[in-house]
Design goal:
The complex is a heterodimer of chains A (277) and B (254). Chain A has one domain. In chain A, 79% of the residues lie in helices and 0% in strands. Chain A has twelve helices and no strands. The longest helix of chain A has 32 residues. The two termini of chain A are 32 Å apart. The relative contact order of chain A is 0.14. Chain B is mostly helical and 254 residues long. Helices cover 78% and strands 0% of the residues of chain B. Chain B has eleven helices and no strands. In chain B, helix 1 runs parallel beside helix 6, helix 7 runs antiparallel to helix 10 and helix 7 packs parallel to helix 11. Classes of the chains: A mainly alpha (277), B mainly alpha (254). At the A-B interface, helix 2, helix 3, helix 4 and helix 9 of A face helix 1, helix 2 and helix 8 of B.
Chain lengths: 277, 254
């Protein structure tokens, strides 16, 4: 591996994606607005069933989280990042197919994994403002007061979650191209992941059988780590279990993504169907 | 499309089930919710809301989705250069996607019935529900025309849908009664036909209220009025945007 060559590939893909992103005003507007109604829907689902005080009291008693809005907000932020990566890195190879450039890309000597990681990082740049935006919204509108004792834990939580989510995107990128139904699959995956990873409620609220599905999703651990760090004053030691699992997922999904990509390339060369959509 | 039409509403209902269980205990009932809506079962409320949503998603975004598909496949220019009636083409696409809407509606409603014990409080008035859904589709088709026209220029239909879907869900009371929105939120809610449509459908399917109920009649009349006003406006905007797209040569670009 030549680091200089990988860096050039990474930079080229990263800059290309940013240029593409800024070429569509609808895309920029969507990125700016989307978190707001989504977050509001999640919070108002609780508000239909009781007053703020009564809901907070129940959530605090059941899950040890004093502010239900904060619980939902953290879940929504991590979910949004996952979603951005699914639609960014995950769809990246399929987008090349739609744009008619996938064959050209696979003919270049560029490292495919570097291309996918660059797509993931550029997606994070697009979506990273959501973290700030939602924190400001939560403070101004929903009166959420974070209970932060360790900024290092928060930084570690965000970084580890991002690394794991990039790997999710890398894994799905090849898988989506093999199925040729990337957008439908990405759309269909959004809602189950939102449910099983506990975006709106802690996964302990799920029936035991359904919790087993939650345990195999990296988004679950990202949400748990961030909730502990932001809402219950957790430090790095208290979220170390979640962080470790996030890196295990990152490694596993990257390796799986690598082999799926290899399989895709092999099949494409044999059948000549890469451009078909 | 089918996956989205089924998975999204189904899992939203599942989430609501968990939320209802957290707040209301195993029964999932809430006196606060009942005092707002007159309905005893929150899950029935949510199930009908999200089942109804499948029709609206197909109507409002079906046209833009079709145009975006033609653009990506490189066939938008030939399609819009043929002498065929473009509105008929667009309506065909929107009605075609209603097949997914009907399947989604049936599956979500059935799953509510089978999994969550969705039980109407009175025998459902299916005729009124059908009228409400049909009028809502007509009124929301106007938005579908506008979005299809916008798609010529904005291109990224999927991002537009992604923003509008939770926006409608929030303002139109799909997941919670609009009465809990702040005053400005309620003002916006009652400007959108979907709000009247989903409420009339719910009242018909859960409370069994039909043309004998004053509020239901009021909601159906509002829907009819909105459909009559918005359809021509939507068509006019679509024609203008299509003409502009031809003039500026952006029909096929994506």
């Amino acid at each position: 591996m030549n680091p200089a060559k990988e860096w050039r590939t990474f930079k080229a893909v990263f800059l290309r994606n940013l240029k593409l992103f800024t070429s569509y005003s609808a895309w920029i507007v969507a990125i700016l607005i989307w978190p707001i109604p989504l977050l509001a829907v999640n919070i108002y689902s609780y508000k239909a069933l009781g007053t703020d005080a009564s809901i907070s009291s129940i959530v605090s008693r059941e899950f040890g989280i004093s502010n239900f809005a904060g619980m939902v907000i953290i879940g929504t932020i991590v979910y949004l990042l996952y979603n951005r990566l699914l639609w960014g890195a995950g769809i990246s190879l399929q987008s090349e197919r739609w744009m008619g450039t996938i064959e050209a890309l696979f003919m270049t000597p560029a490292n495919r994994m570097t291309v996918l990681f660059a797509c993931g990082v550029s997606s994070l740049i697009e979506g990273s403002w959501w973290i700030g935006c939602i924190f400001i919204l939560s403070w101004m509108i929903f009166g959420v007061e974070p209970s932060i004792t360790s900024w290092v834990a928060i930084a570690a939580g965000i970084l580890s979650t991002m690394v794991a989510l990039i790997s999710v995107g890398v894994f799905f990128a090849s898988f989506f191209v093999l199925t040729r139904a990337a957008d439908q699959m990405a759309s269909a995956l959004q809602a189950p992941i939102r449910f099983f990873s506990g975006v709106v409620f802690p996964i302990s609220a799920l029936p035991q059988l359904l919790q087993f599905i939650s345990y195999i999703l990296p988004v679950t651990y990202g949400i748990q780590a961030m909730r502990k760090a932001v809402l219950t004053g957790g430090d790095v030691a208290s979220i170390s279990y979640e962080l470790a699992l996030l890196y295990v997922f990152a490694l596993g999904l990257t390796v799986a993504g690598y082999f799926t990509l290899k399989a895709l390339e092999k099949q494409a060369k044999r059948k000549g169907t890469l451009y078909m959509y | 499309m089918l996956g989205f039409n089924i998975a999204v509403p189904f899992f939203f209902v599942l989430s609501s089930w968990i939320v209802a269980t957290i707040i209301g205990g195993p029964s999932g009932t809430s006196a606060y919710f009942t005092s707002l809506t007159g309905m005893t079962n929150y899950l029935a409320f949510v199930t009908v809301g999200f089942a109804f949503n499948t029709f609206i998603f197909s109507t409002a975004f079906g046209g833009a989705h079709a145009i975006r598909g033609e653009q990506e496949q490189g066939t938008a220019e030939p399609v819009f250069m043929t002498p065929s009636n473009k509105v008929a083409w667009l309506m065909g696409m929107m009605l075609g996607s209603q097949v997914f809407g009907i399947i989604g509606f049936t599956i979500v409603l059935s799953s509510g019935f089978l999994l969550f014990g969705y039980e109407p409080q009175a025998p459902p008035d299916l005729f009124t529900a059908t009228v409400a859904i049909t009028l809502s589709i007509l009124a929301m088709a106007a938005l579908g025309f506008v979005l299809a026209g916008i798609c010529f220029f904005a291109k990224r239909e999927e991002e537009i849908s992604q923003v509008l879907w939770p926006t409608f869900t929030f303002f139109c009371g799909l997941a919670f009664p609009v009465q809990i929105l702040p005053w400005w939120g309620q003002l916006i809610a009652y400007l959108i036909p979907l709000t009247y449509g989903v409420d009339a459908t719910r009242r018909a399917l859960i409370l069994g209220l039909g043309f004998g109920d004053l509020l239901t009649v009021h909601e159906l009349l509002m829907l009819l009025a909105q459909a009559l006003v918005l359809m021509p406006v939507g068509l006019l905007i679509f024609y203008r945007l299509e003409r502009e797209a031809r003039k500026t040569g952006v029909l096929g670009t994506y």
